[in-house]
Amino acid sequence: MRCKRILTIAVVWSMLLINEVVGIRFVIDRDECLSHNVEYEGDNVHVAFVVIKSETMWHFAEDGVDLVIKGPGDEHIHELLDRTSEKYEFLAPRKGVYRFCFTNKSPHHETIDFDVHVSHLAYHDQHAKDEHFTPLFEQISRLEEALYNIQFEQHWLEAETDRQAIVNEGMSKRAVHKAIIESAALIGASILQVYLLRHLFERKLRTSRV
Description:
single chain, 210 residues, alpha+beta, four-stranded antiparallel sheet, 45% helix, GOLD domain-containing protein, Emp24-like, transmembrane helix
């Protein structure tokens, strides 16, 4: 019984080490496709992305990007249109390589933070020889899923924070540049006004002397 318990704990911990959240940050021009292998039919696939920034600080339009999810047979799973930030999850209809294709409609390059996490409850594929271990498998699997969901959510929130920080910084720079341009225009207008008044005064002075 003790050996069986040790073996069970070892299997569970190996499950915790194998499962992981995959995250990537990349720059997209027009179209970009990423792939991820789902090893078991019925696995829960979590997807999240955030458009972090564009190539120019003067571009703040909420254009968003399109995401199309395709299955192993190139079948259409789901699509998200004109989104700057989104989370989505689905049950894999079958095992195989799933493709996540992004389309950027903006004329600017966009930086995207993308995460994918596959949840697999391994105890469904194993026949417990001792009925007392079944609740243990279930509890640990639920704990595993909760931990990875927290990690997944945290990464998504960090990407959202990065996006907002970049947008705020860009808007601050734009406000400063706008103030500088307005100040320069005001100074130029003042100089022109002084020049015109001086020219008009000199002209009147010459006329009065004549």
